[in-house]
Description:
Elements: H1 3-7, H2 11-27, H3 32-59, E1 61-66, E2 72-76, H4 82-93, H5 97-104
Antiparallel strand pairs: 1-2
Helix pairs in contact: 2-3
Amino acid sequence: MNPSSAESPTFEQALTDLERILRSLEDGTTSLEEALAQYERGVGLLKHCYGQLRHAEQKIQQLTGLDANGKPALQVFEHESSAERNRNELKRRLPNPRDDADRSSY
């Protein structure tokens, strides 16, 4: 591994290291001091992975069709997890109890 990759691993390298750390912590054979050091390294790797994912999401664009000149029309990808999407859809479908309370006060 070259020095630059040791400072900033690729997403895949960081994920592999995280999996190795997790297995090591789960087997219970490491000392407390070593386990804490591995945990701290894992938190750093996790933050690194989240940063790389966030950066990748900002670069993703969706093809929405063609513009008037026949060139691809792009828009920025708006990330929304499926759990958030389901929650938002449910909110739109269910009546708001506050709306009923507001109507009854007239």
